[in-house]
Sequence to fold (395 residues):
Amino acid sequence: MLNGKHIILGITGGIAAYKSALLVRLLIKRGAEVQVVMTPSAKEFITPVTLSALTGKPVVSEFFTANTGEWHSHVDLGLWADAMVIAPATACTIGKMANGVADNMLVTTYLSAKAPVFVAPAMDLDMMAHPSTTRNLELLRSYGNHVIEPASGELASHLVGRGRMEEPENIVRVLDDYFASSSRLAGKKVLITAGPTYERIDPVRFIGNFSTGKMGYALADAAARAGAEVTVVSGPVSVRPKESSVKVIPVESACQMADRCMEIFPQTDIAIMCAAVADYAPAEQLDKKLKRGNCETMTLELRRNPDIAAMLGKNKRDGQILVGFALETDNEEFNACRKMESKNLDLIVLNSLAVPGAGFATDTNAVSVFFADGRRTDIPLMSKADVAGKIISLL
Ligand code: PMT
Fold:
């Protein structure tokens, strides 16, 4: 997968920089073209001569070449790259990347890079465990960067703990997997529903639910990264897709969502129904604000909303894949499988409100995927982005 790929390898000043030479060799052996960008302090740990000999390209470290005054364009480098890997990434550089402190060539290149960015932290265990490092890595993840988690073992300080840069072979494997998955859905059209629906009672009130759209948008980003053309039909949410190619069609109610989905479904290869659609809406929408009366109770008449997944299931043609979600609180597996059958789904993703960290609004989820042919895959608690990647890879 790496053959012909342009990789920027950013090296920062940590003892693990000695592993960069091996990383370069492995990338080049797989046919990648590698451009090394080093921070000034990285040169204390490995010489630019070694790296330029291995890559066949001068190493870039300063904004200008001292004797000729030649300017190194971080913008051109950022556009050239198919991927940027920062390995090792020190706590200092991670902090600068997280906060846009562009005081060296590596961080300016990072800020200009359009390609996916992979960060392999390497530092002492206490630095790794510090809340500042945790927060900065979380920020990088929120920008869509991939953090290649450090391993545990003996560190440069001779202490034993988490903070060893992942081995070069594993970093190459992560890149290989990324490029393999980024062409998996090439040419496919994917429709995703996300978020809640709001069913208006009057001009100021609605019936809704706690869905934030995080899971649906994570699926949209993962599908786009796998090469698909993605449309999200989205209820009212504040999240946005990270991938600029994702098209969002905003709607408010279940009926509006149903109409948009029915229009798009015929041109769709894969539809994923992740929205938490209100099953019922007020039978009547009032033009004026409903006044508080003297009665202790009030009754609101509701009418059934269309079941969008079931409608698509009825219209599904050969070759289309229809995926549902099930949010359950009890009898989970039975209810999920019954929904899969009754809505003519090809697979259903079960998440349970009984599992802490799963379901509405959290940044994490834990799911079980049931296939119509009886297979089952469990995905333990992890970020919604990672759950989405795994679901997309199952498709
Ligand atoms: O948005 P987040 O905060 O990240 O939360 C994510 C989530 C918990 C909302 C998501 O992971 C999830 O479980 N979505 C489906 C929730 C749900 O409505 O489940 P359900 O069991 O009620 O519905 C089953 C399936 O039918 C779903 O695919 C649903 O989209 C679909 N459906 C339901 C009712 C309806 N009228 N039309 C539908 O299409």
User: Anything to note?
Assistant: Residues 193, 195, 211-216, 254, 273-277, 279, 305, 307-309, 324-327, 339, 351, 359-361 surround PMT (CB under 6 Å). The chain has 13 helices and 19 strands.
